[in-house]
What we know:
single chain; mainly alpha; 6 helices; 65% helix
Amino acid sequence: MRAFPKQKSVLVGILVAALGIAAAPSQAEDQPPAKDTIFTRKVVMGEIDMNMDEIETMLAPEGKLELLDAQEHAEVISTLLMAFPHLFPPATNQWKEGATRDPATDTFANPAIWSNFSDFYQQASQASKIAWNASRAKKPDEFRAQIKELRLRCNGCHAVNLKTE
């Protein structure tokens, strides 16, 4: 990871918090409570989304691409996407049609994730690699192409795996 002090410290803090929640044993099952893990993955997805928004703001017609700054955001996205599928243990498969949900601690993940977890894992891994490639792009046009592909991957994954009801 390149030395980007501000983003690096935020990323480290998020990952430490996420891993702390995910690793904290509950008294009953030696596993973190499912709601804590769901909350953690929402925090991680929020950080991915924030970094993607920063990049897309720079790439907008009225934006100004600062390639090094944009690459930093892409590297953070790559790292978080590597960790993301690990926040979907089977106990967090709690979707119930029509249930009233707490947006912070209840899942909006499609139960199909767990019936074909290897595909979900592969999608996250491929998106992480695209973000990594963007973080290493030598030219703005190369960066733009990688981010366009990343956005398509994100949207495709959300279309299949995110319940919106």
